[in-house]
Amino acid sequence: MLPTLLQVALGGAIGASARFAVGVMVMRAMGPGFPLAIIAVNVLGSFLMGVFVVLAAHRGLTHLSPFVMTGILGGFTTFSAFSLEAVTLYERGALGQAAAYVAISVVVSIAALVAGLWVARAWVA
Q1: Exposed, middle or buried, 11 (CB in 10 Å: 0-12/13-18/19+)?
Q2: DSSP state, 68?
Q3: Which residues 6+ apart lie within 8 Å of 120 measured at CB?
Q4: Among candidate residues 79, 6, 72, the one with its CA nearest the CA of residue 37
Q5: How large a percentage of the chain has pLDDT more than 70?
Q6: Which among 54, 15, 14, 19 is positioned nearest to 39, based on CA atoms?
Q7: For 58-101, what is each residue's pLDDT tens digit?
Q8: For residue 41, which of 9, 82, 8, 99 has the smallest C-alpha distance?
Q9: Rounded to two decimals, what is the model's pTM?
């Protein structure tokens, strides 16, 4: 358990650092405004998650999943894990569950963020 946890932690540090670097680069190139950096890491992370899942399965590298998927890509963007779960449900033929998962995840996550903002703003006021 501890070696796996350390793999996730190391990968997370790498992924989070990469997300920060991409954010800085995009901000310098494009300026503030529309969250292009977040879109970039979410799309890139989702793409890399898809590539890794296939390569790991075909090349016997699934033992690297905690480091790469949970750690690096999870630290880079949690959207990649969300995307993988949605596609997995879809590929299993659970179209209703996939749609519900996407809708609930997006709507409830945004609602939770708004609730967190409300609670924190009330707390510090």
Answers
A1: buried
A2: I
A3: none
A4: 79
A5: 100
A6: 19
A7: 999 999 999 999 999 999 987 888 898 899 999 999 999 999 99
A8: 82
A9: 0.78
